[in-house]
Amino acid sequence: MKAFFPILLTFTTTFLFAQNNIPDFDGIVNQEEWQNAQEFLIGYEIEPGDNSPAPQKTTVFITYSPTDLYVGFIAQADMQQLRSSIRNRDEGWQDDNVMIGFDAYGDGRYMIALGANPEGNQIDLKVLPNGDDDNYDVNFYSKASKQENAYHVELKIPFANLQFKPAAEMRWKVVLARNTFTDDTRSQSINFRLDRNNPCVVCQTPDEIVLKEVEAKNRVNLLPYVFGGLSGERVANQLDYGSPMGNIGLSGLFDLNSVTSLEFALNPDFSQVEADVSQVNANTTFALFFPERRPYFNEGNEIINSNLNTVYTRTINDPLASTKLIHQGDNQRVYWLAAYDQASPYLIAGENGSTSGEGGQAFSNIFSYQRTFNKGSYVGLLSTNRFFKGGGNGHVVGINGLLRFAELYTLNFEINKSLIKEPNADWIDSDESINGKSLRLDGEKKQGDGLYFSLERNTRNWNTELYYFHYSPNYEAPLGFVTQNSIRNMQLSHSYTHFPKNKEGIIQRLNVNVGSEFTFNYNRLRKYFDVFNNTFIQWKGNFRTGFNLIHIVNEEFAGFIGRNLTEISMFNGYNPSENINLRAFVSFSESIRYDEDDPSVGRALFVGTFNNFQISPKLRLSPSLRYSELRAKTDNSLYFKGYIGRVNANYQFNQNLSFRLIGEYNDFDKGFFVQPLLKWNPNPFTIFYIGGTNGYSRIENRSDFQVENSQLYFKFQYLFDL
């Protein structure tokens, strides 16, 4: 998580608020304006300290009106050392910041966390029992100001933009946090003592706010958009531009009641403002995973989260229409998404690789039901269905759950069944077969099963995890991301975390993890066996090091077996000031060349660096470089080598308006592209941008480059809150 919520209080406090004298929302926390609000301190440092006194005083005020929750922070600081720049939304994590989190249901299913940096740039996320969803967005308001010895942040959070069950009196659990830098070391403080023996982070806080006479207004949001563009491809010796293209569409959200919302999208534009970062795909036989960033799919993600990757919403690629219903009741929650997709990707998993193609029109359906309990526990049902217009379908149905018991233990499980009726189509061009079934889409029927099980024991210093999963031959997840099947995998790991008593020491945090992983196929062939060690050190001065050692006893690929292979890797990060954030990694390994026609063992090198330079409070430069090569172990001949270099320059005119320029060169493809983008983004959903892309490739037998394709595009999308 964003290292912010592990907390416990030894006593319970109830906050009562007056509903009069609402403060002026101007970014200046005047204590006279907040005199009827509850006042308290963020007093415990949890990192690098271990419930030690917070290094800097932070006073927090909370009050509310019938329509809004108000939070005011006074964060005392050495203003010369303050880290604060003008940024896009959700980029303030690297700065000083303050946050409030609240659990409206009180059962640990999730906590909404909202905050801002000293410039008022918003940050938000949803804290879940098994991780965080940092793509989650809430439409709220923030203002900030800098004073002589402190910075102030005020938040105004409309109740109408939150999902909760209204009552004459409501009790919401709350947590407060501050992230700052002391002596060049990142410091994280909260307002409660931390019990590290309790794995349920959200439900540790016994503090709650009492809300009375809150107006539970049902949301009615409309989000129309207009899109236009022009693209050209090189034909012979010149670019051939087609006709200008344009599109319009509409999406929206209606609250059926305070705990149930219905979203819809008609001819949506699901293009992403942020382009996917290119990945090094040399020497891989499996499809690559890219994260989901499209806002329509983010709400309710915790209900369809799957360790078996049953749901991957990017399989819904270009829908003509879609609807989504989310229900968050007292002890149950429901997610139901339906979409008619105009182009559905088709992915077939295999033991040694995956095969994919672009499918046709299909109706897709995702349904999940969960019965919730305390401490974030739940049991549920998850199913996905896809029906192709020209015939063929795929289904997955399963049960799942997360159970916390005896305080220290967490049990997670999923049991799935897949049923596939292939279409008769030419989307997959292959004559190969898997377990007697051809890869070619010829109407065959398939079925398979998937299973996931994990058991964790978490204490203050020691953590143990055992997990097992399998995918049977011919198992597929039509709306998921399963790239390998016919495998049984088990891993056991044990880790120790050291919290130094003296935070002035050179080592601020130490974590050592050891374990082993086994993989067998369904013919009882051992495909993989290793033992490993992972060590992480947080040094004083905001320097961190990760060291990994893996000894692979054996690895099998397409009948070839590599034995006694070793991989050594290291990661270093250094962030001495707001202006400099350096990250670099290097990996030396003995690795199999994954070529089914000629597999062998080679020596691999993978090295790279990702950096951020804050040139000014408004200008940031982010260069990165990744180099990879593989050489034969026998004669040092080269199998492949190449690199990807990327530079991202961002100029922030203000909190809402920015200009970004990306340039990337891919040595593997001998081509590069340039992407300028001007973006206006006043809230999470309203956006206007205009940009373009020019793609270049090397001219054969020359060192010169020529434009291969060019695009110019714009989009305007505006949120109407009715």
Distance between the termini: 34 Å
* Proportion of strand residues: over 45%
Helix percentage: under 10%
Structural category: mainly beta
Gyration radius (Cα, Å) is 27 Å
Mean pLDDT: 89
Major sheet details: 24 strands, antiparallel, barrel
**Shape label:** globular
Low-confidence stretches: 1-20
How many β-strands, per DSSP?
A: 45
Oligomer: single chain
If helices are DSSP runs of H or I spanning 4 or more residues, what is the number of helices? 0
Which descriptors apply to this entry?
single chain, 722 residues, mainly beta, 10-stranded mixed sheet, 57% strand, disordered N terminus
Structure characterization notes:
- The protein is an all-beta fold and 722 residues long.
- The protein is globular and about 75 Å long.
- It has a 24-stranded antiparallel β-barrel. Strands 1, 3, 4, 7, 8, 9, 10, 13, 14 and 15 form a ten-stranded mixed beta sheet that branches. Strands 2-5-6-12-11 form a five-stranded antiparallel beta sheet, with no helix packed on it.
- The chain contains no helices and 45 strands.
Quick description:
By secondary structure, the protein is mainly beta. The chain has no helices and 45 strands.
Helix/strand layout:
Layout (H helix, E strand, L loop, with lengths): L13 E3 L21 E4 L2 E4 L4 E2 L4 E7 L3 E9 L20 E7 L7 E6 L5 E7 L2 E3 L7 E6 L3 E9 L10 E14 L2 E6 L17 E5 L7 E16 L2 E4 L3 E13 L2 E7 L52 E10 L3 E10 L3 E4 L6 E4 L3 E11 L5 E11 L4 E13 L3 E13 L11 E2 L2 E2 L6 E14 L3 E10 L15 E12 L8 E15 L4 E14 L3 E15 L2 E18 L2 E14 L6 E15 L4 E14 L5 E15 L4 E10 L4 E10 L6 E12 L6 E13 L2 E2 L1
Parallel strand pairs: 1-15
Antiparallel strand pairs: 2-5, 3-4, 3-14, 5-6, 6-12, 7-8, 7-13, 8-9, 9-10, 11-12, 13-14, 13-15, 16-17, 16-18, 16-44, 16-45, 18-19, 19-20, 20-21, 21-24, 22-23, 24-25, 25-26, 26-27, 27-30, 28-29, 30-31, 31-32, 32-33, 33-34, 34-35, 35-36, 36-37, 37-38, 38-39, 39-40, 40-41, 41-42, 42-43, 43-44
